[in-house]
Design a protein that fits this description.
It is globular, with a radius of gyration of 23 Å. With 458 residues, it is α/β, with parallel strands linked by helices. The protein folds into 3 domains: 74 residues; 257 residues, Type I PLP-dependent aspartate aminotransferase-like (Major domain) (Aspartate Aminotransferase, domain 2, 3-Layer(aba) Sandwich); 97 residues, Aspartate Aminotransferase, domain 1 (Alpha-Beta Complex), CATH 3.90.1150.10. Helices cover 42% and strands 12% of the residues. It binds pyridoxal-5'-phosphate.
Length: 458
């Protein structure tokens, strides 16, 4: 078998074939329904086979993937996908990813990949600068914000307990001093998940009420102390709203609490002179989680944990082993829960290079402007926009919950565009996330037409 693989490794035609399929995909994906057609989904049955006993010809493997896989993808690289908060993919980053795939580096240690170690270091500096965070803020390159928040919260938990003379990594949480966890009522579900994994519980949290946009009410903030882990949000997952950081973070600083900000898609507002007002005060926090694969349009999977206290992060995540060789250089595994990791920082580097500082700002600002345009067009067409469109999210309704839900089904089935749904103040709403550089005003006009056409059928 390994002889065969060695021969295949030098079969340049195989990689050409993969490239041609990819190009074919990119050239046709924009002309087909945004969500795969029923037939494409039915055809996925082709994959439900027994694991073959014998090796399958590599060309056949690729062909099968392109024949049955490509048509059943969601066309989120196009301009009319508005589901969840899923970003597009910057061309330079996609191309760089192909090259990096050929490298197949392990980003765990400097000695496993000097180039990745250096590019992580470079990205760290650029990000701190771009987002205007405190000097010496550390960055860890993880799979997404779920993991990034987990890292920020574990760093905070351990830091608070250490101040109390409790080393949680050796003694565990049994009998440890209590930590108070304070968060907004609109916190993302991944924050709850992280807290439950970390042994901080889901039921003993202090939830601060939010205003009608989903922002934490600063006037209802409980007393904070030096045992408090406070979790804030830059970009509510439905409305896009930002917590009032200046007021809340100043109080937290004074109380010596640890502040983590979930800024999965919203933190990038800090990179735009026009939108920076939304993130004013974030520099007072201790840790931040953000995705590069959402509004920045870097490829999946790319999340970042940023932490003001480099030691707190590395102490919480570090490990040792007789064969592990730490170096004078950056060892990526100190900043992430994983040891082996793919070289995702290279794609982030390529994204940032391709955009430059002004390009990042322009990308983020254009997403916001397009969301405002989308909302204006929908209002003109007689729909109700329920949120202040401060960033890239638009919440829409058409009559009552039942009508809105029906409308959403029809829009999704149209293949013209794809939006998700959410519950907002107890009502079903349609949720639009303008998240890709690929979206044009024509895409938005066409999508609004799809809304109007669906309403006619209702
Ligand atoms: C998307 C999102 C997350 C989770 O991020 P992943 O990259 O999917 O793990 C957390 N918080 C908010 C506000 C989000 O939008």
């Amino acid at each position: 078998m390994t002889d065969q693989l060695r021969t295949q490794a030098l079969d340049w035609q195989l990689y050409e074939q993969a490239k041609n399929y990819a190009l074919d995909y990119m050239q046709t994906v924009l002309d087909r329904p945004v969500f795969p057609e029923a037939e494409a989904i039915i055809n996925l049955a082709a994959f439900r086979e027994k694991l073959p006993d014998q090796p399958v010809d590599p060309y056949r493997v690729l062909e099968k993937l392109h024949q049955f896989g490509s048509p059943a993808t969601v066309a989120q690289t196009g301009g009319r996908y508005f589901g969840f908060v899923n970003g597009g993919i910057v061309p330079t980053a996609l191309a760089a990813k192909w090259l990096v795939d050929a490298w197949d580096q392990n980003a765990g240690l400097y000695v496993m990949s000097p180039v990745v170690s250096v590019l992580e270091e470079v990205c760290e500096k650029w990000l701190v600068d771009l987002l205007d965070l405190p000097q010496n803020t550390a960055a860890g390159f993880v799979s997404g914000t779920s993991t990034a928040s987990l890292c920020g919260l574990v760093a905070g938990r351990d830091y608070l307990l250490r101040k109390n003379g409790w080393d949680v990594s050796s003694r565990g949480l049994f009998g440890a001093p209590e930590i108070r966890v304070v968060l907004g009522a609109g916190a993302h579900s991944t924050v709850y998940k992280a807290l439950s994994i970390l042994g901080l519980g889901k039921d003993r949290l202090i939830q601060v009420p939010t205003d009608e946009q989903g922002r934490m009410r600063a006037d209802l903030l409980p007393e904070l102390d030096s045992n408090t882990l406070l979790i804030l949000q830059a970009g509510n997952v439905n409305s896009g709203a930002f917590d009032p950081f200046v007021e809340i973070c100043s109080k937290a600083r004074a109380a010596d609490a640890w502040v983590h900000i979930d800024g999965a898609f919203g933190l990038w507002a800090a990179a735009s002179p026009r939108l920076k007002h939304l993130t004013a005060g974030i520099e007072l926090a201790d840790s931040w989680s953000v995705d590069a694969h959402k509004t920045l349009n870097a490829p999946y999977d790319s999340g970042l944990i940023l932490c003001r206290h480099r030691d707190a992060l590395t102490q919480a995540l570090h490990m040792t082993g007789s064969y592990i060789i730490y170096s004078e250089n950056r060892d990526g595994m100190l900043y992430s829960p994983d040891m082996s990791r793919r070289a995702r920082a290279v794609e982030l580097w390529a994204t940032l290079m391709a955009l430059g500082r002004f390009g990042v700002a322009a990308l983020i600002e254009e997403l916001q402007q397009k969301a405002v345009y989308f909302a204006d067009c929908l209002r003109q067409a007689g729909f109700t926009v329920l949120n202040e469109v401060c960033f890239n999210q638009v919440l829409v309704s058409s009559g009552d919950s039942a009508q809105t839900k029906e409308l959403l089904k029809l829009i999704q089935a149209s293949g013209e565009c794809w939006c998700g749904g959410a519950s907002w103040h107890g009502n079903d709403v349609i949720r639009i996330s303008v998240c890709s550089y690929r979206t044009t005003r024509q895409d938005i006009d066409r999508s609004v037409q799809a809304f109007v056409a669906a309403r006619l059928v209702l």
